[in-house]
Amino acid sequence: MSIKYIAIHIMSCAILSFSAFSEELPVETSDRHQKGMAMAGKLFPGLDPDALALPKKFQKYTIEHLFGDVWQGTEISLQERSLATCAALIAMNRTSEQKIHFAVARNIGIPREKLEEIIAHVAHYAGWPVAMSSFHTLNAVWPTNEVTKD
Residue 119: which H helix or E strand, with range? Predict the structure, then answer.
């Protein structure tokens, strides 16, 4: 998998198609669209449809390809996909997108301790400042004093 493809995947994940849930879009009935919408709903419960407006074509790519295909694969688990996405965002120091995907990780049952370990591991490859920024972001999204669900 090329760096360019990974970057496109990560940016697509990060931007998200919040407005894809608004009433302005035509109702799609394709299987990929339905699967994509279901996955987006699972990853981002309580999504604010007015949070970000994207061009309709990019919304379609995000829902149908990213969430309807890429996040649907069976070769690795949903949690593994989430951890891979978080690791890439950590390495690229994309703190805005980390906020989104650290919350996704939490939503799908990944323990905070795993994210902490991923950040510490990536620090040795991407740099200490990247890890420090990521820990600040994780603490903003998931404070250490919060009770976790087991």
Answer: helix 112-126
